[in-house]
User: Fold these one by one.
Assistant:
Number 1:
Amino acid sequence: MTTTSPKSSPRALIVGLGISGISTAIALRKAGWTPVIIEKAATRRGGGYFIGMFGSGRIAADRLGILKGLHNRIPSPSVNYEVDRSGRRRPGMGFADLPNGPWMMMRGDVERAAFDALPEDVEVRYATVPEAIEQDGEGVTVTLRNTADHSTHSERFDLVVGADGLRSTVRRLAFGAPEKYLHRLNYMIAAFALPEDLPGLTRGEGAILVEPGRSFWVFPFADRPSTVLFSYRTDDVDAEFATPAARRIREVYGPEPLGEMMEAAVRVLESSDEYLFDSVEQARLDRWHRGRVVLVGDAAWCPTLYSGMGATSGIAGADLLGAMLRRHPGDLEQALTSWEQKLRPYVDAHQKSGVSNRVGFTPTTRAERVRRALLMRFRRVVFGSPALYRLIARSKQMRLRNEDLAAA
Ligand SMILES: Cc1cc2nc3c(=O)[nH]c(=O)nc-3n(C[C@H](O)[C@H](O)[C@H](O)COP(=O)(O)OP(=O)(O)OC[C@H]3O[C@@H](n4cnc5c(N)ncnc54)[C@H](O)[C@@H]3O)c2cc1C
């Protein structure tokens, strides 16, 4: 069966009901488009892990009506410790201590707020994936498969948006094999939410344990238990997936005893199936659109968790896409080209920081550990001086994290 799109309002297929996909649907709708979202999973995904939302994301989220559903879960005061396995601790610095720092929240908070801001008449089809994408001068024909009943049908759209994450099917169908675009940083992560605070920490207290090639982070919130992150270096990403996550964490962080805090966290992982265990990879493409197919969010650029900008850039990129479609009505190629031109320097900078910040998360070599120690010392000096603090807040990197991309 082939359905033809009405000519009055151009139709967009958005693949992926994550933060980027929902934000794009809202932005396109504001630009006069009719979005249809398909999602591989049978239901929405909630919960998850800590994310920090920087200024660019908050400005875009405000414009899209998402920000009103969010609140900053930052503890006050913000207390973080550098810890070791024996329980020794000294003052440390957390993500939220950054000048012009992010709002702290859960991935699920953003997903929920975005979903609540989605106009009710936007069609969402679950258990649906794209199987083939064919473009011609007039539009795109997409073969869609319902994974519940295995039926397929073809449908016409004016635009297809791949917001289907790092391992994007849209990217594979329209741009080519993943090996061409995915760059492994050779790190693995396990991230999940805790049902209660860890031993040795009270509500709102965070902790960081850094050892050569492996680290453990406790991200604190004011009003709910923390989330944790294990991050470690690997030489063989494929082999990592041969072992269940919790067992692999015990192997990598052993054989010595984990200590009270990590032990409690691994026990949560052992008894849960709500966690993320994945390799850290960036998508790197020279162009994010081909004809009438465009990629956004992790599918397009995935700066990685080490940049702290994935969700922020997903929302900001979606908002900018809507702005460009409004600025160039009836000229899709011009809108997408202008969108890429404006977005490219922003994304490049955050991808670079994703690679360099990795040293702050999980230093591996001796030189990296020294670099991290010097960085921490530098931050302590900066944060103790209001003048230096203001200077860093105005630095290029901080400006880029807080830029209003779609400002007229
Ligand atoms: C531990 C961790 C910490 C992070 N911290 C931060 C932070 O501090 N700040 C920040 O801004 N970002 C952070 N990020 C990154 C951020 O979470 C992601 O960049 C962001 O959530 C990506 O959203 P997305 O919508 O682009 O992709 P995803 O969240 O991957 O969504 C893709 C959606 O597409 C669906 N899908 C996949 N394939 C198909 C298909 N074939 N058909 C249909 N649907 C499909 C998926 O089921 C999913 O719902 C962090 C990430 C991690 C892992």
Number 2:
Amino acid sequence: MPRAPFRRKSGAREANTLLRLAEGLASSKSRAEDVFWEHELQMVVLQHLENADEEAINRALDRAHDAPDATFDALADLVESLAESMIVPSEAGAQRVTLFCAPILVWGRSKIPTRTIPKPQLQNIEVQLSAHIFSSKAKIAVVDYLFAPDQLPRSYSASHELLQLLADCIRERRHLTMPPETLEEAPDVVCDMRMIIGAFQVAEGEPFYAWQEMTTPVEESRLSSLNVWRTQGGNAIKPLLVGFPHELVLPRTFFAACREADLASRAYSIGASVSFLEAVAGTPPERLVATIGGCWGKGLEEYRIGFSIGDSDEVVHGCVWPLVSDEDDDTPVTEEIESLLRAANVGTIVQLDEQLPLEFCDDCGAPHFPNREGEMLHAHLPDEANGGTMHLH
Ligand SMILES: [Zn+2]
């Protein structure tokens, strides 16, 4: 007799176990006790990841927000590290394989490409990563695709699965081919990110990065790696983004690189918006009025910057500056936004004191941006602009 497929219930019990172990780790007072909790927690998390069963992990993470301090970070750090990094046995001893991301901040007057990376460019990118970012002993494999953030693995277990595929590639000394038809369409926005994804392998305990092998102070070493990556890696990446101004962010382990790129993109999008307006509307930055307003949901959630031209109150373009977890209305974010606008030579900067609503367009979902009167408006480029991607209604 056919049976209904067995469906796992809710994952509530598993979430309790995860939460108990994470609380243990977060409240441990010694490195020796940490080791115990970490080991226990690792076994449980890994099991969930390998079974592609994230329900319990996500529930535990949700509940960890209300648990004692540091519980969430203890659990999230461990889940991320197990999703992006693993040990594989080999004849040469245990090898650690770790997922990495090389982010690129980019803007454009037309749709920013996502695309298969042709083999010669992929090899060139791999050579530059090996030479300037990863340690001299690291072996790497790269996915042959220039990803948009929306095309990256969406779950911890999907990230872990990609890691496993790349570990096979490293062993077999080949690239990972990504069939573009399996990826969803990236949104068409003025300023975005693109990512190169891969994995590196080192013997357990060996350094990951080039800057770990240098004898100069760490920050200095890391900066020198970034600078060489920007020039040499930049030359390798340039043919993929012809006509699209871009800037490289330091490649790192997957989750850390994605977070750093998110932060860096906030600042990048300000300068990019000014350059965009100059390019498509022919507006010199001095004629721009930028209005900074804080948008409130439950609390202050993000700043929105509306751009207008001259005396007009119409908003021609805008950018969003989302706040991250440890930022609130006491963080000096507006000073940072102002100094970026000034550095981009924006003529007039207005800062609104009122709490603005988190408004979006009912038709297209685009955020509304403030003008200097504090009205939240849909951004529309002036008629004469040849944006090509505009959306009028
Ligand atoms: Zn709209």
Number 3:
Amino acid sequence: MAECVLQLKGINKYFGKNHVIKNVDLSIEKGEFVTFLGPSGCGKTTLLRMVAGFYEPDEGEILLNGKRIEKIPPYGRNTAMVFQEYALFPHMSVFDNIAYGLRVKKTPAAEMEKKVAAALELMQLRGMEKRFPNQLSGGQQQRVAVARALVMDPEVLLLDEPLSNLDAKLRESVRVELREIQQRMGLSTIYVTHDQSEALSMSDKIVVLKDGIIHQVGTAQEIYFEPKTPFVADFIGTTNLLKLTGSGDGEVRYGNIRIPVSRSVSAGVVYHASIRPECIKLAEKPVEGMVHVPVHIENRMFLGEKVRYFVRDNNGKSWIVDMFDPGRDLLEGDVYTVFPAAKVWIIGEAEE
Ligand SMILES: Nc1ncnc2c1ncn2[C@@H]1O[C@H](COP(=O)(O)OP(=O)(O)OP(=O)(O)O)[C@@H](O)[C@H]1O
Ligand SMILES: [Mg+2]
């Protein structure tokens, strides 16, 4: 079994009456890159700060290499955190900012210089070591903050939206490099973001949070293709959420349209299901062997590599359909959405 570096057990956190983290259980393996993903205010920073030691949980245990750490202050844990608002020391140069933790640990000068130089190189900050934070752009400050954490060789590296101020191109390249060094060093990392493409592209494991509750923990593909709640299905990528009724015999129905499913379903029970826009095509006629739903095209957006159609069916439900390699002739009027039954993912029973 893989070695577990960090464990959260039954974590609860309140701010006054506001219950912001609810019964969180999570374990992180050594060398794993784990992303906390969720909308603004869902508790990502709060959870990260508890791991770093800046907040104490009201209930629960945090174990680092099997030892309880909830009562240990930040500097006594072997974690390093990059804050959402970078928190650089304004009166210190870039070099001194990055070297700060190493100085506190009384690292020999030669080793310190080597580590700082490597971090400067990595974060594409070479030549800026003498500048002060107010002489840097937001993106450069953010990279200094990452470098400052990296040089510490922490047991767990904690990054709170560390690339949010970088322009798209730089973000992409720093993302790739960060992931590469994380893998090379075998650095256990928790990365916070609300950018789903960042989460999907970087993570070994994604933790999807909403209102302080973990909705799902899984690989990028599990989260994308096998969402466990309607929230996860809708938050990651774009999807069509449907309500389908079990009709027994391995079949669900959408109105009077039958859809065979490979999991067991109970007759009369209503299920949430999801089908991605890229799994559907529009056609003027029903297609043999496929599910087809008559729809009316209401709107469309030409996006170059694809056309995104907004269509509505006879139940009044609107669908999104992405047609790739669209050519110049766009569809209009009454058509069918056409898709293989296997592309319909049954999320679970609907409450009502
Ligand atoms: N120090 C604090 N005192 C009181 N309430 C707080 C405090 N910090 C956070 N909260 C509240 O706790 C909840 C979770 O906040 P948190 O900062 O963890 O969210 P987040 O997921 O990091 O959001 P964002 O993506 O906007 O950074 C929010 O409702 C927030 O208002
Ligand atoms: Mg935050």
